[in-house]
Amino acid sequence: MIKVENLVKKYGTKVAVNDISFTVGDREIVGFLGPNGAGKSTTMNILTGYLSSTSGKVEIDGQDILENSNKAKSSIGYLPEIPPLYMDMTVKEYLNFVYELKGCKLNRKKHIQEILNVVKIEDVYNRLIRNLSRGYRQRVGIAQALIGNPKVIILDEPTIGLDPKQIVEVRNLIRTLGRDHSVILSTHILSEVQAVCDRIVIVNKGRVVADKPTDEISESYTGKRRLEAKICGNPKEVLNALRSLQGVTKAEALSQHELDATTFIIESEPGIDIRKPLFNLLASKNMPLVGLKELGMNLEDIFISLTNDPTKAPARKGSVVKRASAGNNQRKEK
Amino acid sequence: MAAIYKRELRAYFTTGIGYVFCAVFLAITGFSFSMFTMQYAVGGEKMDLPMYFLIVILAMVVLLPLLTMKSFAEDKKLKTEQLILTSPVSLMSMVSAKFFAAYTVFAGTLIVSSSYFLVLSLYGEPTYSIIFGYLIGILLLGAAFCAVGIFISSLTENQLIAAVGTIAVLMIMIASSMLNNFIDSAVVRTVLSWISVYSRFSNFTYGLFDFSALLYYISICFAFLFLTVRVYEKRRWE
Questions:
Q1: Is the CB of residue A97 less than 8 Å away from at least one CB of chain B?
Q2: Residue A32 near residue A185 (C-beta atoms within 8 A)
Q3: Where are the domains of chain B?
Q4: Greatest Cα-to-Cα distance within chain A, rounded to the nearest angstrom
Q5: CB contact under 8 A, A11 and B6
Q6: pTM of the predicted protein model
Q7: Are the C-beta atoms of residues A119 and A79 closer than 8 Å to each other?
Q8: Interchain CB distance below 8 Å, B14 and A88
Q9: Distance between A69 CA and the closest CA of chain B, angstroms
Q10: Angle of helix B116-123 versus helix B17-33 axis, rounded to 10
Q11: What is the SS3 assignment for B11?
Q12: pLDDT for A246-300, tens place per residue?
């Protein structure tokens, strides 16, 4: 449905997008993930024909965005980072304007009513956009992108500025849209793409650093199993005991929270579940296990390891300390 | 194109700029009309039609930029241009829709103000050919002014800069015919005569329809609207 080949965009000497290629299939939801300034919005603006690329090619539903721009544009619904709303219009006037602007041929009343139902803005239909809250404005922006029932829907940070309840609603909405549209969704919120997208394209500094189905991307970086265990007893003795256990590749004491319980990070070889032997061992040595948590490498870790250094392979060999500090960075970023 | 035209035209009257333009334009022209025609007549003098239309033109120089200043500047600032530029609409139709919206408000107001002459015809026998000549000339001049304003609006996202810039350029265009008398260099004189919108006006004031002037004003319109399209094309590639 969308084909992007070797896209390059330079602003003067600054390279915003550096050789990006990817495709989006029919009825696929693709998450376009990257830190701020990675080139996400630029790419989206090129996809929709708002900007022209320095070199490279974009095809929407078989139509080149530059050569057959009107045909290509009519199969796109686009919600830019800042919803393009006219403050002096009511929602009704605005949606009718967009309907005419896009030269839509569907039954006007029925079509707009359907969209109102989908994005749930019926109750503000006759109000001025100026007086709407951020969440409603965002939804009017999404409504605008849906007019004309375009095959491709491009959403640039659709949940930014929304409250948690609205975020969940918008995510559900996007998932619904994915049933009959191809959707590209850009975001820097990782849980969002995990929750919504079929496939993730991760970009950093204008380049694609990963392009895989969502479940595969999580799986491929979680080869090693990590456990976080809270164990009572002398930390040194506990560590020795842990290291003696078969399959354990690394054990490390992190911190002492409670009076005599210490938190340990234990890494084991892929494919070996050490939780039962661990319990038995600790029981036999009278070291009570008071807490146990599995630490799968989540998307945040993958993301950080990929975007920090795209030339190196993802953090399979990264140490616990590195990951722990990466985790801290992530918390700081939030 | 119709959608953008309708929206722009409506926006003039939902934001109030249209009302301000109409009110001030009608007030200035109404006042000068009663001054230069009726009051003069009371004093036993001949009515001064050229003076009235000169005031109309000066009012246009100051007021027309109010109509064109927001055309693109506002769209750029509010990012609503992203909606229009990603819709299946060509740049030329976007630019001309905005031009015609501004022009409609201007032409409409001018036509309303022409009703003054109906009052005049009740009391005397004005020379209609001269009045129509002037009105056609002013309609053409207004189109050229609108095109200049639209172009300047596309260069900035600040409405105030667009308005003041347009007033300045229009003043230079008006003044260039007078400046010409003081310049020796043939080259400068030729260049100034190209942009001298006022000197093309004279035949209309005799009640003559000047085809070459018509072409001139239409070319000015096209030139500036085309430049506006180029501004947008260039920005895409930047």
A1: yes
A2: yes
A3: 2-237
A4: 77
A5: no
A6: 0.81
A7: no
A8: yes
A9: 7
A10: 20
A11: helix
A12: 888 888 888 776 667 888 888 887 767 788 888 998 899 888 888 888 776 555 6
